[in-house]
Amino acid sequence: MKLYQPGDTSKAICPDCGKLVSTTFAYRNVPFDDGTGVVKGILAAVCDECEAVVSIPAQSTPAIRRAREAADIPLEVSIPAPEIEIIDAAAYRIDPDATTRLRKSLFAFYLQRLRHDESAAGMLRREFETWNAAKIEQRNRVGKAVRIPQRRLSFKISPKTDRDVQWLMKAIGMNKTDTVRSVIMEIERDLLAPKAPNGLRHLQDIAAVVNA
After folding, report:
1. Cβ–Cβ < 8 Å for 99, 211
2. Could you give the C-alpha distances from 166 to 27, 104, 105, 170, in angstroms and in order?
3. Average pLDDT estimate for 3-14
4. Which among 25, 50, 71 is the end of a domain?
5. In DSSP terms, which residues pair with 111 in a beta bridge?
6. Residues 61, 106: one domain?
7. What is the pLDDT of residues 131-145, one digit of tens each?
C-alpha cells in the first residue's frame, strides 16, 4: 500500500469539474456518502482547480471506519428470552455457522420488507397482539411457577435503519420494544413455522456476505 503525505500530488477524475485534474493530498473533513455524518481530518486527494475532495487513499480507511462506527445508533430492548431464541434459531436455520452478527442483518432485512410493504405493516399490530396473547396463554397453561426471564437484544444500527425503526413504530403505534418483538414475530412465522421457509435461499446469500 502506497502511503501518501500532505502535499503529494496525483491525477484523478474530478466529479465536479468533469475531467482529469491534478490533485494535492491534504487533510479535510469528508461527509459520508449517505449524508449521515462526517469523518474529520482525514488525508484526501483534493482537486487543484475547485478544491473538491476527489479520492481517499487506503490509509484513511481505518479512520473512516471508526467514524462510521461512532455514528451508528444503539438499538437495545429487553424482551422475553424465548424471543431471543427465535431470532437465533432462525439465524441457525439460515446458516448453522452464523454468528450473532446475523441477528442484526436478519432484523434489518425484515424491517426493510415491512418498510416497503405498507399493507403488511398496517396489519402488523393486530397480528402482533394475537401472537402475543397466544404466547401469554401458552405460558399460563404451563403454570405460574414457570418464570420467563427477560434478555437484552442489542446491536448498533445505521441512522437509516434507525429511521426505519422510527417509521414502523409510528405506523403501528407501538413502543420500540413491541415493535422489535413484532419483527421477531415475522421472522418466526416466515422461517420457523413452515417446513419450507419463505425466501431461505436469498437469506442464505445474505448470510454468506455477512459472515465472509
Report:
1. yes
2. 36, 16, 17, 6
3. 93
4. 71
5. none
6. no
7. 999 888 877 776 666
